[in-house]
Protein 1
Amino acid sequence: MHDLIDKLSGRLVRPLPGQDAQFKMAPVVRRHFQPPPSSALDACVVALFFQKNEDWKIVLIERVNNNPNDRHGGQISFPGGKLDAGDNSLEAGALREAEEEIGIKRNEMSILGKLTEVYIPVSNFLVHPFVAVAATEPQFVRQEREVQSILEVSFGHFHRPENRAIRDMRVSPNMILREVPYFDVFGSVVWGATAMILSELVEITK
């Protein structure tokens, strides 16, 4: 095992920094505890690491933006989605979604542990983030119906302060969120729940 994966494996079995770390990359309106309602729907995502050219990469996807009812269309996120009735665990749901969206077989991924859940009020999802590693460099195949593109990002990118910024974000024709922190990834804005999950991941690997 390499140093980063060893660190993650050991750190994920200890108490997590949780919302203190997440809120560093949360919009101002999210920077307080908001317990999910009993009606919240479980969703699972995978922060997948793999090694390429002696660098540890992490996988993000750009979601398609052709469904006006999709509150997350066009956004950059982790592979994942809603837990299905056929999933026998949250972990199984996370691996299934990753296989469907980016084409990596679930038996080619090893789950290292789980990060702190994030509740998304706008879609009423309680997101369960899992951290996984691929045994070899994956050959990705995107699910064209849901995935516009697959991004392979050096994990070190998220540790560098120059890749963090703040901007106002228009989330609907009549609503603007002020001073939203985000990661700049190849010119794309990574914000919201994805940025909050990345923030905790960065915190435990400092």
Note: The CA atoms of residues 162 and 184 lie 9 Å apart.
Protein 2
Amino acid sequence: MLLKPNKNANPDLTVMAASSFVLKQLKKNQFETMTDLRLALMENNKDSVSLLESSLEFLFLLGLVEYHSKNDLIEYIGS
């Protein structure tokens, strides 16, 4: 779970890459379920599925996403 790639890291298996993909999915559809995001990430790169929670935490810290527990939805709130 690397935030910043180094020379030994696979760039596709970093939190930054997973966050970028998740953000792209959320920009298409303002709301997504965790299951839908997991399936989309799995289709993109099955090895990066384990980075979903970390990438959502990263996007939450940046103020780009919000979680609605009542409906189990992730909402894109970025500008």
Note: The CA atoms of residues 25 and 52 lie 12 Å apart.
Protein 3
Amino acid sequence: MTIAITGATGQLGSLIIERLKGQLSHDRIIALARNPDKAAGLGVPVRSFDYARPEGLAQALEGVETLLLISSSEIGQREEQHRNVIAAARQAGVAHLVYTSILHADRSPISLAQEHRATEAALAASGLAVTVLRNGWYFENYAASFPAALANGAFIGSAGDGQLSLATRADYADAAVAVLTGSGHAGRTYELAGDTAVTLTEVAAELSRQTGRAIPYVNLPQAEFAGILKGAGIPELFAEGLASWDVDAAHGALFDDGRALSALIGRPTTPLDQAVRAALS
């Protein structure tokens, strides 16, 4: 079995490759990267792979039996880019395609879900054997704000008291590896999320406990939160998106209690205290 991972130099892709190396011969793992030079240190064969350049994709997938399509980071271009990869996978004879989608993509109000829904529809129509990993929010999405919270004495957001079923990137990586190396997953869609939901108030409380500082969670109106993000240098469209996704989370968009993630990886998902400790380290 030859497994190829797109987005191999990204945080999730590189983590998946590292875990696969512990289970498979390195020559059975192929790193697909837009910039192959950046993937040189991964310790596996590397092929050039740019979602936006369809002319070279099928050739890069020659001999690949299982493909993990990690969703593109280019919001607004992902549907077309993913269709390019799906077409190339069909042309190359890929036997199994695994796709990283978003939690409850079929009904999620989060703006990101639209392109995921379109991709899932394209996959369903492709004739390929497909597994969809509907990943929930990464804990690291919020941990990225810890330095600013510590510097400013407050952890801010617009998620209110929304219950967030967060899991770590490592949890999601382990789920991908379980599907890529296991059997019986074709045709399945997994709603993946943390075992225990938390609020941002609870995240701030744990951050406070571990740092010995009082870092309260301060809930802000969407426009105010977006304005602060833009003031911190985050591009306007992304800042507006982050604030809107928090508001969606306040209304339950990031909650799931099915525990499919822990069942898939064979262990509990990373608890909040451990996730915060790792982020601070």
Note: The two ends are 37 Å apart (CA to CA).
